[in-house]
């Protein structure tokens, strides 16, 4: 019924005003800052790092022990990314393995870095980050953008002594592609980090936030009766 009434009103207005609908068109936008809560670390075990003195199995055991100390659920958070073997003139081979570890915070990532380094596993790298609630944040940003457009329309209409009616056209210019998050572990203060480490305290680390941006265009009718 509401849709039918709106169409009837639009048709009547268009006929009275020579096919011209009194309207105001505005752009609306919103931005939401989001902190990544899913972090992926690449861990490489390589016999060449020790010139074959420490086998791959020994490195793997050391890695498992280090991760358990960090309270990592190895079965759920760790996966094998790849394995390889290089052959040399003496027909001996040195092997390597690549793993991907999923963690949930910058602090957990820092502890893993430190534990693996202490276990003699230096090849650890943060490769990518993500947000587990990205769809919820997108919806929040989308709603905020159209509300922003409505506020702008009301301001413009009010400036000429009018008010807005129904919104009859909305264009969403934003795609739903996964936003790219910078995979940089950020020390909040390099000097403070050095001082905290020297004092035996845990340094404060964090990840740069990502920004979800939404842009829309909306068209609202202008009410003819200003009373």
Key features of this structure:
227 residues, alpha+beta, Translation Initiation Factor IF3, Alpha-Beta Plaits, 2 domains, four-stranded antiparallel beta sheet, rod-shaped
What does this structure look like?
The chain is α+β, with helices and mostly antiparallel strands and 227 residues long. The protein has two domains: 101 residues, 2-Layer Sandwich (Translation Initiation Factor IF3); 93 residues, Alpha-Beta Plaits (2-Layer Sandwich), CATH 3.30.70. It contains six helices and nine strands. The strands form three sheets. It has a four-stranded antiparallel β-sheet. The protein has a three-stranded antiparallel β-sheet with strand order 1-9-6. β3 and β4 form a beta hairpin. α2 crosses α4. The radius of gyration is 29 Å and the shape is rod-shaped.
CATH architecture of the largest domain: 2-Layer Sandwich
CATH topology of the largest domain: Translation Initiation Factor IF3
Mean pLDDT: 78
Question: Can you tell me the CATH superfamily of the largest domain?
Answer: Protein of unknown function (DUF541), domain 1
